[in-house]
User: Fold this.
Amino acid sequence: MIKLFINGLAASAGGGLTYLRNVIPQLAKQTDVETTVLVNPAICHEFDGFPNLSFVQIPKSRGAGVRFLSEQAALPKLILRSGAQILISTGNFALWRSPVPQILLSRNALYTSAGFLRDARARRDYTIWADTHIKGWLARLSIGRADVTVAPSVAFAEELRRWTGANVLAIHHGFDPLAFTSDPTPLPESVQRQLGESRDALRLLFVSHYNYYRNFETLFRALPVLSSHLKGREVRLMLTCNLDSSRNPGSYRAESAAALVKNLKERENIVELGSIPYRSVHHLYRACHIYVTPAYAESFAHPLVESMASGLPVAASDLPVHREICGDAAVYFPRFSPEGLAEAVLRISESPSLAQDLSCNGLKRAQDFSWENHVEDLLTVARQLIHASYRS
Assistant:
């Protein structure tokens, strides 16, 4: 029997929450593992009834900085009290003085991205620029504090090695196709109506909240290029966000993107569906023709696996991590080239045989990602650390 302590307090939305929702049930299945979990109290109920799990809490703190300091003070006592032999820190930042060996999960590509810092500065968003600098500094120091750092892809692990000089392991994040498609809850009626209104158009899908590093602007600039080559067929870009800062999580400013759409006269070709409940998003994938992502910074990108598992061909910016995840299930284009993006989409839309090949390749590739395998690999690392600590 081994005992783990998972610090998942920072996960309240996005990829961090997706990670916990998939990993915690897998850990609960392990008959030789007991897991103590520190998570946001708002999501504890999602794990009611799972065996081999216990939950702890610390007083809620406002702001990442205050939370970081409160965790540093409170966590060591909670870990010792739980009897844990290993700490798994899931949120990019390590516990400075862990009483047990520590595995750090590092998955934020913005901290290593000089391009993102240039982008934030060019937009004069100095708050995000400074916040990323500070958090990046802490994340880099954290890798030095952890016994083992784990990245979700080989490409990002190599990037972290170049950034820190430390050894970093790569363990792919997983995917559960049954869980992804098991909920029959349909899409909201408003979304179904918007999809119905575009039934005759080429429907492109991009699943993301609005942010800078997903490079929405290149995608928007590609639309008029694409429309000019579609020979009368309309194109519709389906977004799972709103180009309105007040209606998106985080502090990214969407006004310049909305102004660009207006200047390009592409308003009718961009459909802002807003946030889609995760339980229903599989319906949205299957209602579209091509998945597109122009992101310039990524560490894994779950929507790529979701789109491949849904049979969608992919047009993706040419990043090492995108090639690693998609392989021959995507057509790639230069990340800041609207013309390249439009050409990639046209190649797929004008060649049914290419689209079919990409779809088949994607369905096969998606099967390579498994949360069960991810947890097994993580537990192997944990057992090795426990064994080493006993020997020392």
